[in-house]
Specification:
Number of helices: 25
Distance between the termini: 28 Å
CATH architecture of the largest domain: Alpha-Beta Barrel
CATH class of the largest domain: Alpha Beta
Number of strands: 15
Helix content: 40-55%
Number of domains: 3
């Protein structure tokens, strides 16, 4: 197996500084101490200090003093919220963090030249320390400019920096050739990533699509991945499992019309086992997230537990028992999946993504229904003993206490207009009662209250009486209690490209000798392409 992993992806030589720094930063993040009790949720007053810039001032100037390192427990990126322009701003991220302590958060995309030239740097990059783990997504296509921007981003203390190679918006793809259009230039993407990795110690990642326009076959996607991985220290790719049509479809259509091909993401993990891949696109519930994370070694965890072991002609009841025990104890779906195939807790396999996809990235589902999507994530996905949030009311009251201190933080006009204003700060809350009785009446009441309210707290005081007490005070729904939302994905993996197999002559020779000649090799190839069924 080790020989196969080494031969399937032959990485080009790179400077020790780029790979060592990026990988060292990832290792350092994994070794961070447990969360300081002072940073844990205990009411709005303890979550954030005075709303000031990272340089200690309340103006919009550039940062002059780097932030202290966060004292938090950063878990693997099993679940993350996608970068979404006009949506995943500072205010939404604060709400999401109050709901889930461990879900990874991404900024809106920030263009490299904006970072290099704006006099209001804090407005684009500042975040309170409790928003860790957090990733800054950059847009650009010039290696030098991206490297300079990455240096500035690193000073703000982000846990990772992501480069946008997947956004279909004409605000991105048509301006300066970045976003999804970058997939048409894999060598340039590799140059950009290399420059960024050499400039900073913060890990660099790539978010991309399956393809763009006529660049839409699996071998072309695999070529893009290999080009970027061989040319830089990037080891984590977030794959939106749809192609993108830059001409003919608008951004909304590009999120819904091109078909989802989840099987390509698992095929990438099969063909590039030394890399990590996260799945993005079409995941609408926490159950579907759990379903994707259960795939280990190309099969569902329950199937692996029941399969014969390598050295015995019998099933693995002890693994099945470990799976049941892990789930019953609330250790999280990733730990349960690892237990099912006998992977030791805390090892680099399974939980780290070595044996399956690294994680799942959710988009608008996390914005439109944040409570349903994130409420049980800490316990069910990350294995925390409890969830960060106990009820919608608790989360929203704590958010309001924080948001009220942010009113007018960036600017107060001569006419009294404030940035941000109350309406901007209330916007992330509008999906909190998705699917609940009287949710529509509550949103109408919010709209009316915003005409006179001077704070977010006043809006909540005026509108909460519209709702039923159980909607306000019920705890998060446990995983598996959302009826009718489970889906079964039949994943028939595409064949491995010939040039990938050509990179593994030793593996092929070994397979032929151990499997009884070409017949054994053919049998192994057939097994690689068997359908994998994802189900909870």
């Amino acid at each position: 197996m080790l020989l196969a992993q080494r031969s399937l992806l032959r990485l080009a030589p790179r400077s020790p500084s780029s790979s060592t720094q990026c990988l060292a930063a990832a290792a350092a993040a994994a070794r961070r101490p447990a969360l300081d009790p002072r940073l844990q949720h205990a009411g709005g007053s303890t979550l954030i200090t005075a709303a000031t810039g990272i340089d200690g001032s309340s103006n919009n100037g550039a940062m002059t003093v780097p932030p202290p390192p966060p004292i938090i427990d950063i878990k693997p990126q099993l679940l993350s919220v996608a970068p979404m322009m006009d949506w995943t701003d500072l205010y939404y991220r604060q709400l999401a963090r109050l709901i889930s302590r461990h879900t990874w958060l991404y900024t809106e995309m920030v263009v490299d030249q904006t970072i290099l030239h704006t006099p209001f740097l804090d407005k684009f990059l500042w975040f309170p320390p409790e928003q860790h783990p957090i990733v800054c997504q950059l847009g650009g296509s010039n290696p030098e400019l991206l490297a300079r921007a990455a240096k500035i981003v690193e000073r703000y203390g982000y846990d990772e920096i992501n480069i946008n190679c997947g956004c279909p918006s004409d605000r991105v793809a048509g301006a300066g050739c970045f976003g999804a259009a970058m997939m048409l230039r894999p060598e340039l993407v590799a140059e950009c990533c290399k420059a960024m990795c050499e400039a900073v110690s913060t890990p660099i990642t790539v978010k991309c699509r399956l393809g763009v326009d006529d660049f839409d076959t699996y071998p072309e996607l695999a070529h893009f991945i290999r080009t970027v991985a061989e040319g830089s220290a990037v080891r984590h790719f977030i794959i939106h499992a749809r192609k993108c049509l830059l001409k003919g479809l608008n951004p909304h259509q590009n999120r819904t019309i091109p078909p989802l091909r989840y099987e390509w993401v698992w095929a990438l993990k099969r063909d590039f086992p030394n890399l990590d891949f996260s799945l993005n696109g079409g995941v609408l519930t926490l159950e579907e997230t759990a379903a994707a994370l259960r795939i280990v070694n190309g099969e569902q965890a329950e199937q692996a537990a029941a399969a014969p072991s390598d050295d015995a002609e019998q099933g693995r009841p002890e693994a099945a028992a470990a799976l049941a025990a892990a789930e019953a104890s609330g250790e999280g779906v990733a730990a349960a999946a690892a237990a099912a195939v006998g992977i030791p807790a805390g090892s680099s396999a399974g939980v780290s993504g070595r044996q399956g996809i690294w994680g799942v990235m959710v988009g608008r589902a996390a914005y439109n229904m944040p409570w349903d999507m994130l409420g049980d994530a800490d316990r069910a996905v990350f294995g925390a003993p409890t969830n960060a949030a106990t009820s919608r009311q608790q989360v929203m009251r704590d958010y309001a206490a924080w948001a009220d201190r942010m009113i007018g933080h960036w600017k107060v006009e001569a006419d009294g207009h404030k940035s941000p204003n109350v309406r901007t700060l209330v916007k992330p809350l509008l999906g909190m009662f998705h699917g609940e009785p009287r949710a529509k009446k509550w949103r109408a009441a919010v709209d009316a209250a915003l005409k006179t309210a001077g704070t977010v707290t006043e809006v909540l005081d005026a509108t909460f009486p519209v709702l039923k007490p159980e909607s306000l005070d019920a705890p998060p729904r446990p995983l598996g209690t959302l009826p009718g939302r489970l889906q079964h994905y039949a994943l028939e993996l595409p064949p491995t490209p010939e040039w990938v197999m050509a990179d593994a002559p030793a593996q092929q020779a070994s397979s032929g000798s151990e499997g009884g000649g070409s017949e054994g090799g053919d049998q192994q190839a057939a097994q690689q392409q068997e359908a994998a069924v994802v189900a909870v």
